tripeptidyl-peptidase II (Piloderma croceum), 643 residues
Amino acid sequence: MRSSTTVLFWIFLLCSGRLSLAVATAPRLSRSVVHEKRDHIPPEWSHSRKHHPTAVLPLRFALAQSNIHAMDEFVNDVAHPESPYYGKHWTAAQVAAKFSPSHDTVQTVRDWLSESGFAPERIHVKKTKSWIELNATVEEAERLLNAEYYVYKHASGKEHVACKSYHLPAHVAPHVDLVMPTVHFDTIVHRGLDSPPVNRYERVTRGLGMPGAGFRSSKMTPTVPILKNQLEHCDEQITPECLRALYGIDYTPIATEINTIGIFEATPQAFIASDIDEFAKYYAPDIHGKRPMLVSIDGGLVQTLHQGPNFTAESNLDITYAMALLTGKQNISLYQVGDIPEGASFNNFLDALDMSYCDFEGGDDPTVDGIYPDERPGGYKGKDCGTVKPANVISVSYDMNEADVSAAYAARQCAEYAKLALMGTTMLFASGDGGVASINGTCLDADGSLSVHGKRFSPSLPSICPYVTSVGATQVNPGSTVHQPESSANFSGGGFSDFIPMPEYQKNAVHSYLKNHPPAYPQHTFNRTGRAYPDVGANGVNLSLFIQGVHRLVAGTSASTPIVAAIITLINDARLAAGKSPVGFINTAIYSPQFADAFNDITDGHNPGCGTGGFNATEGWDPVSGLGTPKFGTLLKKFLELP
Ligand SMILES: *[C@@H]1O[C@H](CO)[C@@H](O)[C@H](O)[C@H]1NC(C)=O
Ligand SMILES: *[C@@H]1O[C@H](CO)[C@@H](O)[C@H](O)[C@H]1NC(C)=O
Ligand SMILES: *[C@@H]1O[C@H](CO)[C@@H](O)[C@H](O)[C@H]1NC(C)=O
Ligand SMILES: *[C@@H]1O[C@H](CO)[C@@H](O)[C@H](O)[C@H]1NC(C)=O
Ligand SMILES: *[C@@H]1O[C@H](CO)[C@@H](O)[C@H](O)[C@H]1NC(C)=O
Ligand SMILES: *[C@@H]1O[C@H](CO)[C@@H](O)[C@H](O)[C@H]1NC(C)=O
Ligand SMILES: *[C@@H]1O[C@H](CO)[C@@H](O)[C@H](O)[C@H]1NC(C)=O
Ligand SMILES: *[C@@H]1O[C@H](CO)[C@@H](O)[C@H](O)[C@H]1NC(C)=O
């Protein structure tokens, strides 16, 4: 009681403080506050001249989303095993309505613009309500935003209009995320044919699908013989039969007409159809002749120009294992994202899944994302916004470094995964193959940048997003059978976010790890309060695979992810067959006490990097193997018990 009284008292003080301020200034014209400012011009740009007062600027006001702060509560409602609304996922329309800028937000900004002298017919509210657009002369914009516009010149000769800072009235500021064009330089590296192309290799993502970006050829053997009696050799070669035995997968799907699963692949990665058939011949006869259903996004195509392992091992692995575990009965969708010149990013994929994301907060960032339409020769001349209905389960065996993006960029993307969670999609991401280090073995310096001398652990994106499920890799130890415990693979990505706080659902598990097995590292080595990952593990070492007709063994969290995706898809099948919903976001359930015995605890192994041994796998959750590997039967039973 005492504390709530205190809180009320403070609210009263704040309100009265605000009131007196409003009275002290002219009605409606509240104090002007700096909304954004830039301290330095980016490299290779120089100040050129003051912009001409009568030039026209296409001003865009990104309106603040409603209700984002209540996201945890919304997701808990549909995903917590004790919630009466478990499985009652939202429709896309409900999501759009809940988060789209409020009437009050739209009205406040519109009123301010009218009061500033802009005729109503000049003020255009986008259909999604995410933006207000207005063509203003430089003179008008400078008065409106209390800013000064300059023309900047790039070393390449390209020009860009920007200001150093801008202001908004205090009562408008909370309703606007940002205004463009203002201080931002990221919108200009427009790759028209007239400017030197910033090609995909120069983006920080290096193009998600580019050779060496995700799956590494070092994790692949030369050709190996095909062994008979597979179950006796699972310590040498993993096949679908080994995986079924390891995790107790014994289920034939029946609700295949209504169930869906999608596998994300970034162009130029491409699968080879004849390799699926070759695999089928030895390990999965019922998928012979089956193909994934191609869903092309932003010109995504299964290219056949480059067919070496660097371009095909990833897709072959993801698609073959998902198909084999799901049997020939369940179709899978292939989300092939990006054209050849521009490639793909996670944001390009999310743009296709959600129309409103495409349009929100300035959209894609050319330093990270593919920019469409792609005007280069052979480029995709469209941009896919909201063209794809998300599958019940989406498996993504790609990752990037948290340190490659800004905190705001990560937060925006994570909020989008949360919306997919609300709509009932299980998003599974590989936890990365660098252990506690980044994809290429670099770690963080004190200033947060990646370098070969860095000492601080480098977290992986999107695994650090709270509403995705992150999957680490495990292995059958040499000499062991499928009936003995696996250990974690030494490349299995794991750690703690520097951007995103630890979500409620994992606090008990992670705190008990930190308390009972305190990692012997200085405080600054990793962030003990950040979102911790991975959430689960699955086999990722020595998987049999055909690549260009050659039988090889491959390793990576890339393998573990489609395995878990297939398991969740089978569970969805059983729930759908029982007239229930798909499971959607699973973490709230699997970290809860009800699911305590649904995973094989992995207590052996570690994930070295950054000049350290990394974290140790231990009893209970750990940042190498998560909660452990799935026990299919138990998971199926537990999830079927839920409403
Ligand atoms: C701004 O001007 C451009 C070019 O004339 C036009 O296409 C666009 O519709 C205008 N936008 C608004 C909001 O008036
Ligand atoms: C595959 O990619 C790796 C890493 O980028 C590179 O070192 C290797 O030479 C490539 N192999 C082929 C055959 O292109
Ligand atoms: C599954 O894929 C096959 C071949 O691509 C297609 O003919 C069939 O209609 C698909 N089934 C469903 C339920 O989508
Ligand atoms: C590692 O990747 C980062 C980008 O993520 C890049 O800046 C850096 O040059 C790479 N370092 C090495 C040693 O390859
Ligand atoms: C994987 O395969 C390699 C080479 O075939 C073998 O030496 C190793 O024991 C296998 N298992 C693991 C866990 O590395
Ligand atoms: C990981 O284990 C493999 C063998 O399974 C070994 O070759 C490799 O050196 C180990 N890597 C690290 C970083 O310890
Ligand atoms: C640790 O994570 C929290 C979010 O939980 C963040 O606010 C904080 O800045 C992070 N600390 C460091 C040193 O990165
Ligand atoms: C992991 O376990 C080893 C052996 O018990 C120990 O020496 C090491 O300090 C542990 N690592 C961490 C990070 O706690």
Observations:
- The radius of gyration is 26 Å.
- The pocket of 2-acetamido-2-deoxy-beta-D-glucopyranose (ligand 3) is lined by residues 257, 293, 331 (CB under 6 Å).
